[in-house]
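DATA CLASS: polypeptide
GOAL: derive structure tokens

***
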Amino acid sequence: MPYTKSTFARYSLILVPILFLMFTSACGQSNLNSQGRQDGYILSLLWWPDYCQSHRELQACAGADFHGFAAGGLLPRLSSRWQQADCGVKPGPRDTTKLLKLIPDRSLIQEIWQQYGFCSGLTADDYFALVKDAFSSTRIPDKFVDPKDSFVISPKDLKLSFVKLNAGLLEDDITVSCNEANLREVRICMSKQLHFMSCPALPDCQRSVVYVTARMPLAE
């Protein structure tokens, strides 16, 4: 068949979309492979009084209605790295009211969705339902439930307090994050079925004790 301009144009209409799909697929696969294979989640438990120290502008930090751990989302647990790259921008849940007992601030809900939820491949509603299930299935030690006074605790004893309450949870499944001397966050690794599992090489607080503040900052 003679090779003409019309032939070239006709084949271009077929080949260009195919090549585009091959390119975007290869890029996505390369990005995933460069970061590791996702094999579960990391439940983030933010210590709310400490979070509010650096987010005093938030309305949820202005009062004393919430003292304790807030859900910081389900981070993708990767076989070689603990955090996934930004997967793009997509609107989060429209109705955040029902999530405020879990995550006290609406802007934080949207931030969690953009950073971690969108990467999960789930819809916003399904993702936050999974966050709620993971949070609800993890028992919080009494001393961290609405404490009236600040206290100190070693990272090891903090982990053990969770281990004693949660069947199947091991110390290796937990990491503690500190902000200087203050408790900042507890992370618990889970499978895709939300069963406890060991964590990859996550940063762990190296201090002998952490300060658990029960005081909310004054609004500015």
User: Anything to note?
Assistant: Residues 1-35 form one domain. The first helix runs from residue 5 to 35. The radius of gyration is 22 Å.
